[in-house]
Each structure stands twice: as C-alpha cells, then as structure tokens.
C-alpha cells in the first residue's frame, strides 16, 4: 500500500519528466524555427513540418 508521501513523490517525479520533455520539445522547435527557408529545404523539411518534427523527436513517434 502506497503512503501519501510515496504518492506525492510519484506525482513530483511525473511532473519533472513532463517538464523535461516539454523543454526538449520547445528547444527542438526553437532551433528549427530559427533556420531560414533555404536551410530548412536543404535538410528536406519546410516550415509547416517543424511542429510535427519537434513532437516526433521529443516523444519518439512518427506518423
């Protein structure tokens, strides 16, 4: 049986993990957004793909 302190510790850890992932997403998004259209084209993406690429990179998914 979990004590209240164990439950609180679990919630805190989950929040830390979520914050870490959020930071990774925004860092990736920001870095790609700073590239000009030509640089983006050189790596095979366009501006409309940035959000999905940042999400996939952060959460290790692909559609």
What layout of secondary structure does this protein have?
Layout: H1 4-33, H2 37-42, H3 50-59
Description:
The chain is 73% helix and 0% strand. With 63 residues, it is mainly α. The radius of gyration is 17 Å and the shape is rod-shaped.
Mean pLDDT: 95
Give the % helix: over 70%
Order of helices and strands: HHH
Strand content: under 5%
Please summarize what this structure is.
By secondary structure, the chain is an all-alpha fold.
Provide key terms for this protein.
63 residues, mainly alpha
